[in-house]
Amino acid sequence: MCRHLGWLGADVSVSSLILDPPFGLRVQSYSPRRQKHGLMNADGWGVGFFDRSSGGTPADGVPRRWRSTAPLWGDTSLESVAPALRSGCVVAAVRSATVGMPLDVSATAPFTDGQWLLSHNGVVDRGVLPLTATAESVCDSAMLAATIFSLGLEVLGETIAQIGTLDPNARLNVLAANGSRLLATAWRDTLSILRRDDGVVLASEPYNDDSEWEDVPDHHLVEVSTKGVTMTPLDEPKGF
After folding, report:
1. Is residue 187 classed as helix, strand or coil in its secondary structure?
2. Among 46, 59, 138, 197, which has the highest number of CB atoms less than 10 A from its own CB?
3. Locate the Glutamine amidotransferase type-2 domain: which residues (predicted)?
4. Strand ranges of the sheet holding 171-177, from the earlier edge strand across to the other edge
5. Is 2 a catalytic residue?
6. What pTM, to 2 d.p., does this model score?
């Protein structure tokens, strides 16, 4: 189990998204409010963002990552640097490792294919996933990410529905971004959305008590882009 957060909008500091809010990912690493599986997320953290320092549109940005196996609540290096890291598209996560999965950086979200950043909040039976040599780790989340990358993010909803059928116990909340789009699935775990004046936050749970947070219905796909926000029910799978 994990907690994760995605941002798409104006350039903001990483700190303002994950460290500064009263119930942000730092607090969720030791005291999540809506987590149903596990008590804390002490097995590492990861922050990914799109770097546009060379110019161009958000989609031209380069995905950068900073990952650690240390608990987020005690990482003074991130606390020092995060206020200076700014981006219009961010994916961040704190990790509670699935039993039996490795505790190393390569198993920590966000994962990437060079274009997308992706985090998985949940658990999945690795036996239902296609074998792929591109997974960053043998952990279930990394293998799920590699499967999604290989099939393409355009069919994310169909992929999640199919895997959820193959593994009825799976929890498949996925969060992915490419700099100009933010995608998320709600599949048997919590997901909330906050529409701010300067952008949109998708998160496993609200990072503050703002009344504008909305719960995303289960078995839905959310897409955030410059065109706005859409929520689509996930249909029955038509094949893998």
Report:
1. coil
2. 46
3. 2-240
4. 111-112, 117-123, 171-177, 182-186, 220-225, 228-233
5. yes
6. 0.94
* Catalytic residue chosen out of the listed positions 2, 5, 160, 222: 2
Q: Give 51: exposed, middle or buried? Use CB within 10 Å, 0-12, 13-18, 19+.
A: middle
H-helix or E-strand spanning residue 77: helix 76-81
For 40-54, the DSSP string reads: ---S-EEEEEEE-TT
Question: How far is CA 24 from each of CA 14, 42, 108, 206, rounded to the nearest angstrom?
Answer: 11, 14, 18, 8
Of residues 174, 178, 183, 187, the one with CA closest to residue 235: 187
Q: What is the CA radius of gyration of the chain?
A: 16
Answer whether residue 239 is part of any domain: no
Give residue 31's identity as a one-letter amino acid code.
Answer: S
- Alpha carbon distance 27, 42 (integer Å): 11
Domain-embedded: residue 47: yes
- Which tens digits make up the pLDDT trace of 155-171? 999 999 999 999 999 99
CATH for 73: 3.60.20.10
Tell me how many domains the chain contains. Answer: 1
